Amino acid sequence: MTTIHPSLVSILALVVLTAIMPCRAEFTVVLPDSSGLVDRPQNGFSNFARTDPAEQRAVYEIMAATGNAWATAIPDVCRGRWHGIECMPDRNYVYHVVSLSFGALSDDTAFPTCDPAHATLSPALLHLPYLRSLFFYRCFSGDHPQPIPAFLGGLSPSLRSLILRENGHVGPIPTELGNLTSLRVLDLHGNQLSSSIPPSLQWLTRLQSLDLSYNKLTGPIPDLRNPTLNVLDLSHNFLHGQIPATFGQCDSLIKIDLSRNRLIGSIPDSLSNLKSLILLDLSHNSLSGPLPSSLGKLISLRALLLNGNYMSSATIPEDGFAGLKELIALVLSNMGLQGPIPESIGELPSLRVLHLDGNKFNGSIPQSFRRLEKLSELSLNNNRLSGPIPFSKEMLWRIGRKLRVYNNSGLCYDASNGRSEGIDSMSGISYCETETKRVVVGAASARISGYQTKHLSSRTDRGPPSRLSSYAPTHRSGILRLLVPFTGFLLSVLPLL
């Protein structure tokens, strides 16, 4: 498993934190009149209030099946206001179970515990007709992995959220889950599910978040046309085939993560219809070029990660990304891209992270990069660039050791931008000699390869380093950190579902 340089963490987290706030309303679910429940807290019970006895017995059975020793110690599962059990009354003051959550997310989360060595999913779940949210976390991850039972497809028609995270579930995703037509959130992250994604998930026309990441799923991605879908995460599987063009019909999408699969073919132009898309991560697949200029129509995009798709001989369209005025992170590392770096990349006013390393770019660094006033990380190493580095000494101080330009054929620092003792100390970025000779980056960095790590390890992140780092970052764990705010956000709104 590869790791990423930790410097991407704060920038990529900002991508989501600055973007999800306007989307909060998208996840609010209005309770239908047909539920027969009154939307009010479960405290303030009157003397006449009571919990439905059949549902109370069902909760006891469910808790016993999870290995919870104190299940029957709860005299009334609703009136006790127990963590992980939420209830709502009907108009006759009869309280019904609407949410169950099992498994400890942290030391501060006192949900009912599970015994992974013995826990099972009980069919008593079918006796909770008002259930809207079901959550199990690390409850069934013992020595005997269990499949997801098909009977879950018969859960309450009111179910909005089904989350079975990191439970060690094996086998296929049950086709019967397509019967849960009120579902807004389906999260099966971090199990060992195999086989293909069932086409029946297309029937979930109200689905807002689908997370099947970190499993062992195979086969093609089914055509998804869910008009309400906001979040799609199928990363870290073994999916193959092409990216469905029908994704362009899911015009509510704000996040697509298909990274770490075996996808082939080109990036479909239909993705340009996704005007609300904030994150697009297609990294580490086998996608082929050319890079579509239509990506420049994703006007809300904050992060674009295509690294690890070897698009031999592909180039970046001159104005292909010009419309991405909100873009914060652009990662195009190790893609076999060639030709000059377009000047238009320097016209992206929000850009903070730019990784173009491990390609075959030639020519000079665009002068327009001087105008990237928010840039805090730049990787141009392992290319074929030459000529003067156009950055001012102020910009070099701002980026500091997060500037990586080693292993290029002829880069040097233009002394006309101002000389300083700090710049002189940067071995690997030497001044251009206009009359007789110039010392190039490639030669200098070869001489310091065994020396630089020691000097960098004692430095802070600001100011020019005494030795130019040869550390070439990878990107996946930064992507994971980027996704955490999405996951936390979805979990925070589950009570609303």
Can you walk me through this structure?
The radius of gyration is 27 Å and the shape is elongated. It has helices at residues 8-17, 53-65, 393-399, 421-424, 441-447, 452-456, 476-492; strands spanning 50-51, 85-89, 94-102, 133-137, 161-165, 170-171, 185-187, 192-193, 209-211, 231-233, 240-241, 255-257, 262-265, 279-281, 286-287, 303-305, 329-331, 338-339, 353-355, 360-363, 377-379, 384-389, 403-404, 410-413. It has a 15-stranded mixed β-sheet that branches. It starts with 7 loop residues before the first helix and ends in a 5-residue tail after the last helix. The protein is α/β, with parallel strands linked by helices. A hairpin with a 4-residue loop joins strand 2 and strand 3. The model is unreliable at 14-35 and 435-497 (pLDDT under 50). 13% of the residues lie in helices and 17% in strands. The chain contains seven helices and 24 strands. One of its GO terms (biological process) is response to other organism. This is Protein TOO MANY MOUTHS. Residues 1-25 form the signal peptide.
